[in-house]
Design goal:
Helix content is 77%, strand content 0%. The protein is mainly alpha-helical. It is globular, with a radius of gyration of 17 Å.
Length: 181
């Protein structure tokens, strides 16, 4: 499978995940009936879903790096620092039947989403708006520039946007786990 086809497949999946998450948030905010039904879903179900999103995100990132040889910039590394542990925390939480780990997952997802949003801002400026930006990581030359993107699907979807959607979805699922506890 080519990089373009793989990226398109992931982009469609990310758009679907974003729509599902957005609709879920809106229903929670607007409808008391849905708020009650969300609270009836089990704590570990939400943790499993958050873990699944984290595992798919991790595998997607590793496939880009090792399968397609895309370079990993400094901000991508920071996003990985906050995404990869969520896999392990979710698995241990389910395996050992631990509660209150949703708080750790929420903290990791919130910080990771800040890095992803910041990174996507630069990709949006350069890839979508054609602005010229210079970042400190561009001058070093050891790691790739944080403003360059090997993936641009539908004119606006880049890897940091995919990570941002993953982080927001995990954050939402962890919040629902907290409410169902």
């Amino acid at each position: 499978m080519s990089l373009e086809l793989y990226s398109t497949f992931l982009s469609v999946a990310v758009l679907a995940l974003f729509l599902i998450t957005l609709i879920s948030i809106l229903l929670y905010l607007v409808s008391p009936k849905h708020r009650i039904s969300y609270s009836k879903v089990g704590y570990y179900t939400y943790i499993k879903l958050a873990g699944l999103v984290a595992i798919v995100s991790t595998l997607g990132a590793l496939t880009y790096q090792f399968g397609y040889g895309t370079p990993v910039c400094e901000y991508c590394w920071w996003q990985r620092i906050f995404m990869f542990p969520i896999d392990i925390i979710a698995l241990v939480t389910i395996w050992k039947q631990i509660t209150y780990n949703e708080i750790v997952i929420m903290i990791l997802a919130a910080i990771g989403s800040l890095f992803a949003a910041f990174h996507y801002y630069f990709h949006f400026q350069v890839a979508v708006l054609d602005n010229i930006l210079s970042m400190p990581c561009s001058a070093v030359g050891i790691i790739p520039s944080c403003t360059e993107t090997p993936v641009l699907i539908f004119g606006f979807i880049t890897i940091p946007l995919m990570a941002l959607v993953g982080f927001i979805t995990i954050l939402w699922l962890a919040f629902l786990a907290k409410k169902s506890r």
